[in-house]
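User: Hi! Is it possible to get a structure for several chains at once, not just one? Here's what I have:
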Amino acid sequence: MTSQRLAIGVDLGGTNARAAVVDASSGEIVASHKATLSERTPESVVSIIAEAVHQAAGSARLALPSVASVGVGVAAQCLGRTGVVLNAPNLGWRNVAFGELLAGKLGRPVRIANDLSAAAWGEHSFGAARGIEDAVLVFVGSGVGSGFILGGRLHSGASGVAAEFGHIKVRPQRPGTPPRRCGCGEMNCLEAYTSGMNVAARVREELQAGARTMVSELAGGDLARVSASLVDEAYRAGDAYARELWEEVAELLGVAIANLVTILNPARLILGGGVLLGASTLAALVREQMDAKISRSAVGALSVERAWLGDDAGVIGAALLDG
Amino acid sequence: MTSQRLAIGVDLGGTNARAAVVDASSGEIVASHKATLSERTPESVVSIIAEAVHQAAGSARLALPSVASVGVGVAAQCLGRTGVVLNAPNLGWRNVAFGELLAGKLGRPVRIANDLSAAAWGEHSFGAARGIEDAVLVFVGSGVGSGFILGGRLHSGASGVAAEFGHIKVRPQRPGTPPRRCGCGEMNCLEAYTSGMNVAARVREELQAGARTMVSELAGGDLARVSASLVDEAYRAGDAYARELWEEVAELLGVAIANLVTILNPARLILGGGVLLGASTLAALVREQMDAKISRSAVGALSVERAWLGDDAGVIGAALLDG
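Assistant: Yes, the chains can be modeled jointly so their relative placement is included. Here is the combined structure:
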């Protein structure tokens, strides 16, 4: 028992926060506590997280003062070591000194990072990128993002917002596709065309504007049930609308991922997220585009894996951020 | 004199090789020797470089055996520590064990890198990125390329081909623009649409196909004189063809550079190369696109500079590759 070094990580999403005590030598989650964000003001969220941290630490019989720091992965643009959350659309936060607030509440130093940077660090520590110096993780789920392990280190960039892959600017293939505003406030981000939430929103808008697609029947006529996985189902059933949409989305995602690999030359690409892992037809189309567009010079070193740690990658990585 | 630590760097282009003795504590070039590549077989080039290294070392009264290693920046895709040049279109090389050949000839270990990675390392050591942990260098000249300093280290990637920015895949804005094959052999690389050589080749092709543009008169009717700077001149004189071409090229370059900044979050972007520094109107259009498309989260940390070390960046960086 004495050889165990325990660390605390938190995964802060838009609706839940999860605190976990992680064995830093094995990556095992020793105890964890999940709490719903009943309110989303920074003060409320800080209180909810602090309570979850105390619960998890209590279950693991870990005295909080014995922990060097607490790491938090936030579904947001985070200014690294300053602890400032620049923009968290799901929480409605802009420029919140979240790290400082939480550190004050916990009485321990707090280190924050984007949730996918934390997940990449988790996969590097104990998952699909273990022992690999250069690895890129790409998630396409309700949002789109990435995390970079470069030279064995988490690459956070000059102000901590590196790897904001969802916010690169793209131009859809079909001239008729209207420009879309992203949750970050900017126009034509990759995420605005390809994330699960945005795909669903776009299909709803187009259905309301008169588009004809099987997705409507698959959703039982209920717009709220429209989702990327129903588009995937419609595609497999031969729906023309779904085919056109998936071709556009797959080209955008496939080329963007290919260019990321060409530029960073990782040994491993880790794919994750509900859209890439759940919408199998889209995933295959993305892979086809990607394989065709990665520079031949970068493809030789590359292997592609699904994420190993699933939803645990974020808390594990967060716990080890300063490790 | 005894405090001077001298290192040897080589810059290998398509037509010349330059060897330099560099003071590793100041970045000063103590002696240098430039040689024309009269032949381009690997054996001939190795002999020419070895001779240039001996000449430069002799001028600096430096005994070659006292040097730990010799660094070479090559205008090519280089497989890092293996010393293999994967693809050097200007030399006509594919899969050449160049590092090994040169090491055999010199009797010293040889470290090779892409010329722009070497230049980035030079600018980081003694130029526009000195003291900056995260810096990106982008060159648009006869070719298009980049070099990355991330976390204070040169990022070479898993097999040494990271930062091959010229070989990301793009889709031009105008539907009428035909696909172009790049010097690397692949289709639709950024370089195929935006490098000085490729722009000149495209304008020549379009003139021969009947395009009407002032570039023709500016070149005195001599197709061989067509260049990016003449297109720039034609643009300033109100030429419609030049305006359309520059808009397309500027969008491709500006968005690609913006996305690079969004993804890597550098504190400094260093711009260089004959097209970006010489074609002032194009450079301004690229800058406009770039400024509009960088994610607001990444723009705060960024400053943009021209390269400081000019043509010396490559040899200086190469000399310090293992430093």
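DSSP finds twelve helices and 13 strands in chain A. The domain at 6-127+311-319 of chain A is CATH 3.30.420.40 (Nucleotidyltransferase; domain 5).

User: Great, thank you!
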